[in-house]
């Protein structure tokens, strides 16, 4: 009898323990959804408030304090690389003293674990630690923007979210006419002839 009980117990353990081990129940990193309502349509983004707390938190402050309302997408960088369309769009406060907040610390992708994939939101900056209220949205993956000692800019740029709705709007902005005479230096010819207005930036309503 004892042998049969032991065998039954062993069989029970063999069935239940692996099942428990296969269910890690690990929650996904927390994000906050934001709508960028523009004159060409709405772009919905998920901000990585857990994995990139400094950068995502900074962007949320711009949203909550209505500092992005009335700003524009002003730049379309086109890359002639497969797949098409490729490049990025850029928008934000453009160093408007009435809108910008103090610069934030740089959060490289080597720390956050995020990457510059299709639809990634990334902070515009000069040197690391100078980002404030301007950002880019990528049309396709750009690993050269990640933090990597082999990349032209080893510290890379700070990814803080991704587009979860409205990539068609991103692509339409990217395809909008550019003015060949606008812009300075290496950005000359990348400025939109008619910037696209961000009429409102707001946290998305919970479903």
UniProtKB/TrEMBL annotation:
Source organism superkingdom: Bacteria
EC number(s) given by UniProt: 5.2.1.8
Signal peptide positions on this chain: 1-21
Pfam families listed in its UniProt record: Pro_isomerase (PF00160)
InterPro entries documented for this protein: Cyclophilin-like_dom_sf (IPR029000), Cyclophilin-type_PPIase_dom (IPR002130), E_coli_cyclophilin_A-like (IPR044665)
One term of GO molecular function: peptidyl-prolyl cis-trans isomerase activity
Entry keyword set: Isomerase, Rotamase, Signal
Span of domain PPIase cyclophilin-type: 37-203
Regions that span the bilayer: none
Protein name per its UniProtKB record: peptidylprolyl isomerase
Organism: Alteraurantiacibacter buctensis
Organismal lineage: Bacteria, Pseudomonadati, Pseudomonadota, Alphaproteobacteria, Sphingomonadales
